[in-house]
Amino acid sequence: MKVGVTMPVEDGLSAKDFLRIAVEAEDLGYDTVVCGEISGAEVMATLGMMAARTSRVRLASGIIPTTTRSPVLAAMGFATLSSMAPGRIAAGLGASSPIVVGDWHGRNFTKPLATTRDFIEIFRAAISGQKVSIETETLRTNNFRLAIDPEGELPIWLAAINDRMLRLAGAIADGVFLTWCPPTEVQQKVDLVRAGAIEAGRDPSDIEVVLSFWGFEGNDDDVSIVRERCRRSVLAYAMVPTHQSAFLHAFPTLTEAAAAWDLGDRKKALDLTGDDVLEAMCPIGPPGVVSDRVHQYVAAGVDLPVVFLVGPGRSGPEPALQTMRSTAAALALTSDTSAS
Predict the structure, then answer these.
(1) Cβ(309)–Cβ(212) under 8 Å?
(2) In this structure, are residues 209 and 297 in contact, taking their beta carbons and an 8 Å threshold?
(3) With contact defined as beta carbons under 8 Å apart, do 105 and 114 qualify?
């Protein structure tokens, strides 16, 4: 069974902490280590440290926006990583959100579907090593040629929540990266990915299905803290305008909760983010809850379940390591079997 872990990038950890988690994940038998990029660790530097200190585990970004770097700069970064760890790098890309792109980075968040499509077209061409001159609807590059050999294949995972992006993943990516998706919704989303692949004349079975979910295992006190932390996170992500429609099935009170939040009634908004919503998205509890969710995702058709390691916050790497260890033990992961 292939299982991955995602770095707890919202827990205030250092680069040394992330490296410790990645090295132990490889030792425990995890197939893939993913590192996101929000407002803390820069992903290329972090993955580079991991590539230098590991030898087997696959390393991936999860997810970098298609607007905060140019496609040729992203190609340079991923080619550098791949030359360090040939065959072990995956490029996780996604449109991101108006908050990250517009408010934080000061860039225009317009035409996210077209921008993502065009980014991947230029990125793919650049990674190939050919001389690239492309002008698309949203992006352009002229006479660029990559001067470093990636030394191996570099699959692209496209983050997708909404229907059109799911279809695009099937049409142009090597994998789809799902998130905030309960096991009961996997089939519907995968069907859209496969439809996009078929429409593009591709074999849908070639598309890897990767799914990241927040998970924690620990004692009762920490479980209570993490549950409330994740409740806020579920609500925060669900309220992002570009994400809301994808949450409505699992979060039927979202519209009312978002309205309460906007009016400043935080308690009401969080009360409306009920335990059923939280538990559908985030397995949090004693040892066994995360591994059980992994089995549910595999049964639903996910090729690579990825545990987003979350803890009480500002508590060092130990909560992440604790969940990672107990889940590996429950799934009987070993370095030899996961490499096969």
Answers:
(1) no
(2) no
(3) no
pLDDT of 233 above 70: yes
Give the count of beta carbons closer than 10 Å to the beta carbon of residue 83.
Answer: 15
190 pLDDT above the threshold of 90: yes
**Contact partners, residue 242, CB within 8 Å, separation at least 6:** 95, 97, 98, 112, 161, 162
Q: Which residues pair with 305 in a beta bridge?
A: 211
Helix axes 112-127, 163-172, angle to 10 degrees: 20
Q: State the CB neighbour count (10 A cutoff) for residue 203.
A: 9
Helix axes 289-300, 318-331, angle to 10 degrees: 60
Q: What is the pLDDT of residue 336?
A: 55
The C-alpha angle with vertex 114 and arms to 113 and 117, in degrees rounded to 5, equals 85
The CA distances from residue 301 to 185, 262, 295, in Å, are 11, 37, 10
The tens digit of pLDDT for each residue in 243-264 reads 999 999 999 999 999 999 999 9
| Integer CA distances (angstroms), 277 to 95, 251, 309, 320, in order | 25, 6, 19, 23
pLDDT at 334: 82
- Percent of the chain residues topping a pLDDT of 90: 94
Cα gap 211→193, rounded to integer Å? 13
Token digits of residue 73: 């700069």
299: which 2 tokens? 């049964």
Joined together, the tokens standing for residue 83 give 């030359």
Residue 36 identity (one-letter amino acid): G
How many CA within 13 A on the CB side of residue 178?
32
